[in-house]
Batch of 2 targets.
Target 1
Amino acid sequence: MAIKYELIKEDKQTGARLGRVTTPHGSFETPVFMPVGTLATVKTMSPEELKEMGANIILSNTYHLWLRPGEDIIKEAGGLHSFMNWDGSILTDSGGFQVFSLSDMRDITEEGVHFRNHLSGEKLFLSPEKAMEIQNALGSDIMMAFDECPPYPAEYDYMKASVERTSRWAEKCLRAHKRPDEQGLFGIVQGGEYEDLRRQSAKDLVSLDLPGYAIGGLSVGEPKHVMNEVLSYTAPLLPKNKPRYLMGVGSPDSLIDGVIRGVDMFDCVLPTRIARNGTCMTSNGRLVVRNAKFARDFSPIDEHCDCYTCRNYSRAYIRHLVKTNETFGFRLTTYHNLYFLVKLMGQVRQAIKDDCLGDFREQFFEQYGFNKP
Ligand SMILES: CNc1nc2c(CCc3ccc(C(F)(F)F)cc3)c3[nH]c(N)nc(=O)c3cc2[nH]1
């Protein structure tokens, strides 16, 4: 069995769960935050640094790696793990979402999606079968089914047809799966904000008895309360004894609110993306280190943080590096932001163990400033 999930504890007050996922490349505790490594690297971080900060699973992307360098080169390297020298777990997205978010000309048919390469303009075609062929070549431990993530908002009739097609595509992925013993295939629940369509999508995918499930179609511009409502009735539709992955969600408040509704796995480009413009997550909210007020501030980014960046460097120094566009500055902000989220999930897991996740949410939101009107 490629993917094993062990439910360790259910929170008494909320839908939160403590668990452990095991893949052929190791195991990780859940709830977990997964750093995004689109082009086979978590930007500016070495595998050693990721391991040191406590990351055991990272994400990468079928669409991007198919275009550059091409899955054949990665296959020749022995797969993505050896290509990027990462011996932890890897989850790859199936490419559907990236086609819709990156390329303009696209045409969806029953067979798959026709679109233009967003770099060269050449016409390309991505199908459930092709997405599986690429992910099998990459050798990722967790592969996502090829789905359509409709834009938000979407008409009911469009969403219904899209959900039914995404369910048929998931079956095609399962049939096209060449390495079921080494790689786990997760289905992706769609349905937008229509409860009956979410139920239909979950029912179709659960009937395939896949090793894990993702909740897709969220974090696409909908208000947070809509995301939380959809999560509240969708997560419980998924099997208790399998991991649940909420795609594209990673702000600290959304992570905690997702955990409370029963989500186990999260990804987000936020920590690495905002780090590259010098914005850091701290226990007292966001800090824009390039701000002039930090020019003579020799305290660490976050006085409550014990990461490499906060133990060795000051705001003044990091501000200087970021202002002068020194790469080391972005390594320091990236390291801190990833560490902050990995540590936050550790605190969330501890709160579930101690049956005090509700209180933890209260205290964290207050200190971070989420409750400010
Ligand atoms: C930002 N909001 C969002 N991201 C979403 C994503 C992408 C998740 C992803 C995976 C891998 C990477 C990698 F760069 F690290 F590889 C980067 C991002 C979705 N993906 C699919 N398949 N279905 C969805 O319905 C869906 C909804 C999504 N909402």
Note: Residues 36-38, 59-61, 93-94, 96-97, 144, 147, 149, 188, 216-220, 247-248, 267 surround OQQ (CB under 6 Å).
Target 2
Amino acid sequence: MRVKICGITQVQQGQAIAELGATALGFICVERSPRYINSQQIQEIIRVIPTNIDLIGVFANPSLTKIKGVLQVAQLTAIQLHGDETPEFCAQVKQLWPHLEIIKAFRIKTVGSLENIPQYVEAIDTLLLDAYDPQQLGGTGKTLNWDILATFKPDRPWFLAGGLNPNNILQALDNLAPDGIDLSSGVERSPGDKEIGKVAQLFTKLNQVHSKNKY
Ligand SMILES: O=C(O)c1ccccc1NCC(=O)[C@H](O)[C@H](O)COP(=O)(O)O
């Protein structure tokens, strides 16, 4: 299972989190987020990360020029679109950067929030399901209603996000079988400052599932 730790802002924390077992690191390219870092800062972190780790730039309603500017400096392997991007916009991004993984995030409020997803699957590689918040786009620490996802079987691999932490991760994986999990505020001291002890606790929990052959 893929494990993405999002909102990395510091070189040493990125390195430590990759060593603990994260398969993907996320970098917030959304300027109004407290976890925002610029493309030079992202590249400083990427420089010391092993090449088998996925490096995901998180954008919300970006222009193509904005994405291009970041990609010119930071060697990302994936683009996460976390705003209200249309399927057509996602397809444009995929066409321009076919070698990158395109992840489309959906903020799930009700079962109706899942209805739009089929329109996107042709244009993207991976889905990410996050909690809805009226004020913030992501990194909210809110858990989405997992019952809504009980019968969710999309045509693309998917990440479960939203309020996951070392205390609730096993319950989440008992209820659902995502292809990956994504955590941010559940493993940090304050926005953008990851708590390595909490990340270690997360992997201890995940290894318990692994030893029962469930992950
Ligand atoms: O994390 C942010 O600050 C953020 C800001 C704007 C758009 C997206 C953002 N985060 C996206 C993520 O992928 C987070 O990991 C995801 O929302 C889960 O966060 P959390 O509930 O804190 O685990």
Note: The first strand starts at residue 2 and ends at 6.
